[in-house]
Amino acid sequence: MRYWKIVRPIRRIAKKNPQELVPTAGAIMEEVVGRQELCAVIAEALRDRHSRRPYVLVGSIGSGKTAVLVQLTQLLAEKGAIPVPIHLRGADLDGVDLNFSELAKRRFCEEVDPGVISRAQAERVWRQICMNDKVVVIADGLEEAFSDGGQQRNRDSVIRRAIKRADKQRLPLVIASRPHATLEGTQAAVIDLEPLSEEAAFIYLEQKDPGVDSRRLDWIVETAAVAESPLYLQIARQLGQHQLLENFENNKGWEPIDIRGSDRSGIRLSLLNSWLKALVEGHLRAQFDLDSEQRKRTVDVVSALACIGLLNDRLEVRFDELISWPTDERECRPAAECRYAHILSQLKERVADLPKNENNRCWQTTLARYAAQGEQLGLVEAHNYKVRFPHSILQACLGSRFLDAVQQHSADDLKKALAEPGRELLIALIMRSRLHRDTTPQQATVKLLLAAAEDRQDDKAFDLFAAALEMDTGRIDDSLHEEIAGTILTRWPEIKGGDRRTRDEAKLRLVHRFGEALRRLDRARNDRPDEWARPAYGDLMRISWIEPYYPVRLAIAQEIGAGGATAFDELRTLFPWPTKKDDPRADRYDPWKQYKKAIEDEQYEENSKRERRISNPDAADPPESGESTRDRIWRQFVTRAWLVPMIVGSVGSDRQSQARERMDLWLQHLVPNPATGRADLPISLEIALSQGFKSAANRRRRHPATSEEAREYLIGRAEHMLTHARYWYSQLSLIHALCLWELPDRADDRIEGAGSGNGGAGTDPLRAVERWLSMAGSEQAPADQPADELTDGGARKLHPFVAEGADLAALALETRHPERFIWIDEKGATVNIGSNPADATFCRRHSLWIPPSVGWSTLHPRAQQLLADILLLLNVTERDGLVVDDRLRRTNRTTLPPCLSMDRTSLHPERTVGMPGIAEPGICCQRNCKFELCPYPAKGEQPGAELSEPFCRQQQALLASRDARRKKAPWQGMTGRELRRFWAAMAERTRTPKV
What we know:
Blueprint: H1 2-16, H2 18-21, H3 36-47, E1 55-58, H4 65-78, E2 82-87, H5 100-111, H6 119-131, E3 135-140, H7 155-168, E4 173-177, E5 189-192, H8 198-206, H9 214-223, H10 230-241, H11 264-280, H12 292-312, E6 316-318, H13 320-323, H14 341-350, H15 360-376, E7 381-383, E8 386-388, H16 392-399, H17 403-409, H18 411-419, H19 423-433, H20 442-453, H21 459-471, H22 481-491, H23 500-527, H24 537-546, H25 550-561, H26 564-574, H27 591-615, H28 629-650, H29 656-667, H30 683-697, H31 708-724, H32 728-742, H33 765-775, H34 800-815, H35 826-831, H36 861-878, H37 885-890, H38 898-901, H39 949-960, H40 976-989
Parallel strand pairs: 1-4, 1-5, 2-3, 3-4
Antiparallel strand pairs: 6-8, 7-8
């Protein structure tokens, strides 16, 4: 009886108000939405005592890690567990050791009412609920643990040891952390926190204020990307509840939030400043008896402390860092000797009631009073002689208000801070740049960022470059845009330090900021081209040639593909067109001829080097770069193939004909060559071209980089390519593209082609899909046809994946929810768990049919199984991420290899690069296998897409589900038990082996 009397209050709080239980949930945080899928996946993974391990939720600054922990706390309590959240920064760590179980026990005993039970009894209850496997430990702030002075020396080993101990204890543990190298090689499963879905963000903002202008709200959600951070969602919602998100009334003295003329950072800063103004004027936190002047002074004092925290890359700031005087109040020191005298001097100008002398005790008392008021306003957490900022983005906004004083009077402080910059400082510098003050030295700051990135070899170099791009004014008289872009291109291949996961995430952030900067310049040049720098699309394109990581290259292509006429003009400079119709050198402009010549030249160079080595064996070998020139050539043409359909869709009518000519140059090489009886275009480039069509089709009619005329042309060209497509993957991608183009934009619209009499779909999705299937590969070159394409009766066979994908496309057309049955990029879909709105019937008219926030949990179970096996086949074909056309030709059949359809043990997913021998493709194949693909790429080789543990566990769950009508896919000939065993091995593959 006493057991439940103790546990029930904790579980009740976790269910009804989880923010109270999670110590890191700030005062601004309210309801949390859109993370149900992620929380459900983690909760399910923690259930099995034998297979679970610690989970680390990794997200960058402001990505919503704490918000996920709040929602997870609530979900676990509803499922009968007892969540125990702990804050690692505020925890009383035992010397240099970290024990999650002990910290959780201590927190549990603190939550127990001492009037009901003693400490010893509480510990007995703790042991009982641990034996019953009811406890789940939720730890936040791993990056803040051991952050003080001497503790940092052994920090990494202590954290690894603590995670290993938790894994050995089978402790249900979820940790939130920013990315850092410590997490690599631990016993924990790392889950990257992807952005919230824009639909969930829109519903969250609209439900409390249904009268808000939905178009304006939609623009804020999409342009400011508020779904990336819950803080912006909370702020926008609070402003909307007080009717402060619209154009403000003149009698209130408010200005409208500028959304049309601003970029992502500008709108975010406008939201933050509007929220601070509402806070100062009493629209928010009105229950506290602080007048406007007191609130304003509080914001100023807290801002000064925030700036000091930014310069030291800390969320906690002590009062003595601002006043910096001796503890003996009888001693005095001139203010000029204080470390941050310039910040203190400006604070005194803004806040009149600060102490006039240097009496330490007076200052401590005054700052403690303002800290307490800051806590009431939800800005800080007040502690003895220090404050902590619960929201790092809010700290960046507040601290940016004093950065001008720092740079003008003590530039060395800023330079020193940029030597090891935190993301908060970079965000603050970007926010300051959006104020467009004459006193802000923009160009000098950009030069400081470039100098700080000059010798760095880790992910922070990419963050510094991204900040420089965002801060650059772009005006031709003081812009450094060209220099920044050139420096990024030069330094890109040199930056190889740090762990790969963090580095790749930083690359993706830089690519997105690069694309935003290019489009911002492009918009500015539309009216006054002579006043603005020319966007460096060419440098971004060249980066894709030297970048081996597939998601980064695809992101670059998508950023350039949305660049319209300016991007096309830059590509025309890189890849010129004949100036005369009868130019005898016209062949040199043909992309296939260019590719063929580049490969032949490289082959000749390789042969020449080999001959020289044989002739002079004593000569020193030139240093190896780690990758061949042939790889770079292949990447260049893959990126070009991705871009062709996207550029056709984004250019204006004045350049449509030139863009279409380039498209036709690619497509003509899918037509059989009379001399060889085969299509000239390599299958790998055919695949890239089909992927470009799907990316272009993902743009809805409202997308700025599309038009009705281009859309109709691309549909015709996609159908033409579908008839000549040789490879199953190309056919599937083109069917997906045509399905997206076929979808109506409004729910009451008919399917495209209804009643048109041109063989369109009418109102029957099946007719559209059957028509595409009849076209797939129907006109491909006879010599390219798979040997097993014809059945005994002479009818054409379909690849199993194409047939299943077509069925799912029909369901997408029928339900008009393509995100449940179609994906844009296989590798991206398996990395993201996904996020959905709570209302499944809600359909927001965003610019993309399938936004990046969609992950595998969004997909129908049939689509999840198809996606999983497609990735398996792609990985054994592509292996190290570089497509080999010989293997593609071997897999160009209408049947699956036996290792996927009959017996998967030959894949040997347990192999690692540390095992003896070289496992060449085909060495483990079953007898008479014509594919020669086995084994699966060894762990450590980094295949095109390593499948995550949650995704593999989901495949096991689908096979064991009692509710599923179909447990196995039609092409899976093995038993369900064998399949579950295989996916268990794939899940185990993601783990770090125990020592």
